[in-house]
Amino acid sequence: MQFKLTKKNIELSNHEEGVVDEKLSRIAKHLRTPFVVDVMLRRDTHHQSGDVYLCRINVEEGKRVFHGERTGESTLDALDETIAVVIQQLEKEHDRHRRDK
Questions:
Q1: Listed residue (29, 2, 3) closest to 91, CA to CA
Q2: Higher confidence at residue 48 or residue 99?
Q3: Domains by residue range for the chain, with CATH
Q4: What is the value of pTM for the model shown?
């Protein structure tokens, strides 16, 4: 699956980028073409509790836009939570679309 990955204040190893790609492929089976997926991973260091990782995913599917944004204690935690939110939105929209036909 093709996606645009933006990283801010964070470096990912090749292994971590592979894991990100693998995790994002879970979204692919819920998408209808044409679609565009933008992913942003950011590390915020100004929190009292230490580093906080933010993941933001925007999916443009035709004329519809789906958005998810979550934070976590690690990059992968934030990514997992955000993917779950986006998948939930996609499933809800597709179920609604099937029901309306």
A1: 29
A2: 99
A3: 4-100 (3.30.160.100)
A4: 0.87
